[in-house]
Design goal:
- The chain is α/β, with parallel strands linked by helices.
- The chain folds into 2 domains: about 200 residues, 2-enoyl-CoA Hydratase, Chain A, domain 1 (Alpha-Beta Complex), CATH 3.90.226.10; about 45 residues.
- It has 11 helices and 9 strands.
- Strand 1 and strand 2 form a beta hairpin.
- Helix 3 runs parallel beside helix 4 and helix 4 packs across helix 5.
- It is globular, with a radius of gyration of 19 Å.
C-alpha cells in the first residue's frame, strides 16, 4: 500500500513504521500523505484496538528531509506552505483525536516534527539511543507542528520552555524522569508492543472512553458529565459483563473479537 511507511496489523495491534532508515526516517511530502492515510485506516479499522508508531533502523523520525523539500522561501507561496504544514500538523491532529490508544516506540532520534509525532501519542517508550528534540529554534523556526502546545501539557510550562527555547535534547532517562516516557527499554518497539498487549487485554470500550476522559482542557464539571455518559455506555457493554464474570470466576476474560 505504501512506499515510505509500513503498515502491519497483528492480533488487534496496528504498527505504523516510518521506513526511510537511510535518513533516520526523516519525512518528505509523500511520507506525510502516507502517515495521514495509515492513521486514518487504523482508526477506522474495527479490528484494530491499539496503534504503535515507530521508525525503521536506528531512527524514529528525524523531522523533515531537507534534501527532498523545495526551497520554501523561493518556490512556495504562503498558501502553498500553509497547505504543506497543515498536512504535517494533521498527523498530530489525527493521533490526538483518535479514541484508540497510541504508543510511540522511540528507538532513535525524534527531532522537530518527529518529536511532535511522538508527543502526540498517548504514551511513549524510549530506547537507550532515543533523542527527543524540539530543535526548531536552532534553525530559526517555531514549533509549527504542535510541540509548543503539547510539551507544556506533558511536563509543565517552565521545563517545556527550557527545551523549546534552547533546542536541547531530552535524553532517555530524563524522558522517564519527566514523565514523558513510561519506560527506557533496550528494545523500545518490543516494550511498546508488550504495553500495547497489556492495553489490548482490557475491555476496549472502557479503554477508549478512559483515553478520551484524559483531557486537560475540560473543566471538572465537564469531566463529570462525560463520565456519566461513558460509564453508562460501559455498564451496557458486553466486554464489561465478561470482565465482571471472569473476575468473579477467577479466570482471564475471553472477549468476543475479530482481529
Amino acid at each position: 500500500m505504501y512506499d515510505d511507511i509500513r503498515y502491519e496489523t497483528d492480533d488487534g495491534i496496528a504498527t505504523i513504521t516510518i521506513d526511510r532508515p537511510d535518513v533516520l526516517d526523516a519525512f518528505r511530502e509523500q511520507t506525510i500523505a502516507e502517515l495521514n492515510d495509515a492513521i486514518r485506516v487504523a482508526n477506522e479499522d474495527e479490528r484494530v484496538y491499539v496503534v504503535v508508531l515507530t521508525g525503521a533502523g536506528d531512527g524514529f523520525c528525524a523531522g523533515a528531509d531537507i534534501t527532498e523539500m523545495p526551497d520554501w522561501h523561493e518556490e512556495m507561496s504562503k498558501e502553498d506552505y500553509a497547505g504543506y504544514l497543515w498536512g504535517v500538523q494533521n498527523v498530530v491532529r489525527q493521533l490526538r483525536a483518535m479514541e484508540k490508544p497510541s504508543i510511540a516506540a522511540v528507538g532513535g532520534p525524534a527531532i522537530g516534527a518527529g518529536c511532535d509525532f511522538a508527543l502526540a501519542c498517548d504514551m511513549r517508550v524510549v530506547g537507550p539511543d532515543a533523542i527527543l528534540r524540539e530543535g526548531f529554534v536552532r534553525v530559526g523556526l517555531v514549533p509549527g507542528d504542535g510541540g509548543a502546545w503539547l510539551l507544556p501539557r506533558l511536563i509543565g510550562e517552565s521545563k517545556a520552555k527550557e527545551y523549546l527555547l534552547t533546542g536541547k535534547d531530552i535524553e532517555p532517562d530524563d524522558a522517564v524522569d519527566l514523565g514523558l516516557a513510561v519506560e527506557n527499554a533496550d528494545e523500545s518497539l518490543e516494550a511498546a508492543l508488550d504495553l500495547a498487549a497489556d492495553v489490548l487485554s482490557l475491555p476496549a470500550h472502557a479503554v477508549r472512553r478512559t483515553n478520551e476522559l484524559v483531557d486537560s482542557e475540560q473543566t471538572f464539571e465537564d469531566y463529570c458529565e462525560r463520565a456519566i455518559e461513558y460509564q453508562w455506555e460501559c455498564v451496557n457493554d458486553a466486554e464489561h459483563h465478561e470482565a465482571i464474570a471472569a473476575f468473579g470466576e477467577g479466570r482471564d476474560p475471553a472477549f468476543d473479537r475479530e482481529y
